[in-house]
Amino acid sequence: MEQALGRVPALQTAGVKMLTNGPESLRPTVISSWAKRLS
Amino acid sequence: MTNFPSAAQAVIVGGGIVGCSTAYHWSRLGWDVVLLERAKLTSGTTFDATGLVGQLRSSANITQLLGYSVDLYKTLEQETGQATGWKMNGGLRLACNQERWTEVKRQATTAHSFGLDMQLLTPCEAQDLWPLMVVDDAVGAAFLPTDGQPNPSDIPLSLAKGARMAGALIYEDTKVTGIEVDKGVIKGIETSQGYISCGVVIACCGQWTRDFARCVGVNVPLVSVEHQYMVTEPIAGVSPDMPTLRDPDRLTYYKEEVGGLVMGGYEPNPIMWAKKGLPKGFHYQLLESNFTILNR
Description:
Order of helices and strands of chain B: EHEHEHEHEHEEEEEHEEEEE
Distance between the termini of chain A: 33 Å
Helix content of chain B: 25-40%
Largest interface: A-B, 30 and 50 residues
Radius of gyration of chain A: 17 Å
Strand content of chain A: 25-35%
Mean pLDDT of chain B: 93
Oligomer: heterodimer
Low-confidence stretches of chain B: none
Radius of gyration of chain B: 21 Å
Mean pLDDT of chain A: 77
Shape of chain B: globular
Strand order of the largest sheet of chain B: 4-5-3-12-13-14-11-15
Structural class of chain B: alpha/beta
Number of helices of chain A: 3
Helix content of chain A: 25-40%
Number of strands of chain A: 1
Shape of chain A: flat
Distance between the termini of chain B: 50 Å
Low-confidence stretches of chain A: 32-39
């Protein structure tokens, strides 16, 4: 979040309309290093 | 259900953007296609996508594929009569160190080789396009004028309408209950509405694909993770024609929405979700907000 505020300082005072946390599935290439943990 | 098909050349499972796009393209190729969605179209995870369409990737093939998507989105609404919300406001990608800048310049060479308009900008030129950002640490930026943003739910609905126009049959509230396989060959698919004989089943189930594929003995190493983003109230200086913005060195992205900004992160160490199985009935649902994800 600090990284974003550094790039766009206007976010520091912006009102938040909505926070969204939704699941998304990642491609096998991204999570290949996690495969052992899941199997 | 009357008129429920008893046979098809291909059955597509899942009514998110991938399933709808597959139905659109296969039906237009002349395939006899049925799409099955166990709840409503887009209700899995497509509905809460942030909806940035950027064409620049490290893979030339993927970049070309995304270029095709942009060409399609330009005309899809006119073709189907169904709104897509597509806005071609361009996309900026910042480079904040020499290694990233070298990567961007290589990508520009590749992009230009197949005709994609990609411009290399100085930090000040990038700031002219996106005045709200600080560019003290930037080395340069890539700008793709044909990047853009759609309404994430409207694109698949427009694709679904186009698929129907080409003869595809689409059934919502229809759950797949089994797949008939004989000696390694797909014979048909069992659903809550009846049996469909088919030679091809295409899994477009998004985060459900791992569980779905397992029922025929196929391992798809796919995992669900939490993805957090925020939408702000209108901000002075934000205009509808501002490009989308990706800041890979700060692991964040932005887009304009109703005068405010959508801001999300590329989580380097994401939180895995539903490791022991996806909950039943998870449609049009979100997770509890957790902005600590962006600080991990």
